[in-house]
Design brief:
Layout: E1 2-10, H1 15-26, E2 31-37, E3 42-48, H2 54-63, E4 67-69
Antiparallel strand pairs: 1-3, 1-4, 2-3
Length: 70
Amino acid sequence: MQRTITIGIDGMTCQGCVGSVQRALERVPGVLGTTVSLASGEAEVSFEDSQTSRAALAQAISDAGFDPRP
């Protein structure tokens, strides 16, 4: 089943940060698309919930050097 969620992200300060988060999320298996906003400090992610989870997406953000908000 396809889901779309919004994840808050702390630590982004520039468009380079946005690109890093977007690339990290797009590498997660099952992610169908993502939009990351510096202005809102959030990522909207569409994914197949049979292939990944919110926890895996948050881990990808952490691995990229940023802090996902619960």
